[in-house]
């Protein structure tokens, strides 16, 4: 099923379960009522930060808005994940595994173009982010400090705080992100 339609179904279900109007969800997420309505109707392909704001407002993991029913064993081919972008096309994210009631983490493959950056709002409370650098150099700026990572390096940090991924180099940066949501 198309990602926008999946998000629409899950958004409506989550909002209805919480007895929230679009106006109430708008206030707690910081997303306009009109934009939420478009997303819920499946007429919009929201950006990563828009999905994060909605997820944080609903107090659910980012990928809860993208949940589909899974089989017991799942193989995901490189061509299958849908590309999502940040506010610009310089930051691309491919979700391989979403958080589910039985899995409290998400797995992403990320690409960041040379000489570009992407700001990410803090995720839900107590969340942790694990990063593994495949190719290139990452400068990660957080409210708690800055971290420089090269190929083969990893980092775990409190992702409930705002953070920025920066590629200051001339080459494409690729990395894996696991967002973990403790119970």
From TrEMBL:
<dbReference type="InterPro" id="IPR050807">
    <property type="entry name" value="TransReg_Diox_bact_type"/>
</dbReference>
<protein>
    <submittedName>
        <fullName>Helix-turn-helix domain-containing protein</fullName>
    </submittedName>
</protein>
<dbReference type="Pfam" id="PF07883">
    <property type="entry name" value="Cupin_2"/>
</dbReference>
<dbReference type="InterPro" id="IPR014710">
    <property type="entry name" value="RmlC-like_jellyroll"/>
</dbReference>
<keyword id="KW-0238">DNA-binding</keyword>
<dbReference type="InterPro" id="IPR010982">
    <property type="entry name" value="Lambda_DNA-bd_dom_sf"/>
</dbReference>
<dbReference type="InterPro" id="IPR011051">
    <property type="entry name" value="RmlC_Cupin_sf"/>
</dbReference>
<feature type="domain" description="HTH cro/C1-type">
    <location>
        <begin position="11"/>
        <end position="65"/>
    </location>
</feature>
<dbReference type="GO" id="GO:0005829">
    <property type="term" value="C:cytosol"/>
</dbReference>
<dbReference type="InterPro" id="IPR013096">
    <property type="entry name" value="Cupin_2"/>
</dbReference>
<dbReference type="GO" id="GO:0003700">
    <property type="term" value="F:DNA-binding transcription factor activity"/>
</dbReference>
<dbReference type="GO" id="GO:0003677">
    <property type="term" value="F:DNA binding"/>
</dbReference>
<keyword id="KW-0805">Transcription regulation</keyword>
<keyword id="KW-0804">Transcription</keyword>
<dbReference type="InterPro" id="IPR001387">
    <property type="entry name" value="Cro/C1-type_HTH"/>
</dbReference>
<dbReference type="Pfam" id="PF01381">
    <property type="entry name" value="HTH_3"/>
</dbReference>
């Amino acid at each position: 099923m198309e990602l926008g339609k999946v998000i629409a179904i899950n958004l409506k279900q989550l909002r209805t379960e919480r007895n929230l109007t679009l106006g109430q969800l708008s206030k707690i997420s910081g997303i306009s009522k009109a934009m939420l309505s478009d997303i819920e109707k499946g007429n919009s392909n929201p950006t990563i930060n828009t999905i994060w704001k909605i997820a944080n407002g609903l107090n659910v993991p980012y990928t809860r808005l993208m949940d589909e029913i899974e089989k017991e064993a799942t193989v995901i081919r490189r061509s299958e994940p849908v590309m999502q972008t940040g506010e610009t096309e310089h930051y691309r994210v491919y979700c391989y595994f979403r958080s589910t009631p039985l899995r409290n983490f998400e797995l992403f493959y990320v690409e960041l173009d040379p000489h570009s950056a992407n700001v990410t709002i803090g995720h839900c409370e107590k969340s942790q982010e694990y990063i593994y650098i495949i190719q290139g150099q990452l400068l990660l700026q957080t409210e708690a400090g800055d971290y420089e990572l090269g190929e083969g390096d990893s980092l775990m940090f409190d992702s409930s705080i705002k953070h920025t991924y920066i590629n200051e180099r001339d080459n494409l940066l690729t990395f894996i992100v696991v967002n973990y949501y403790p119970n």
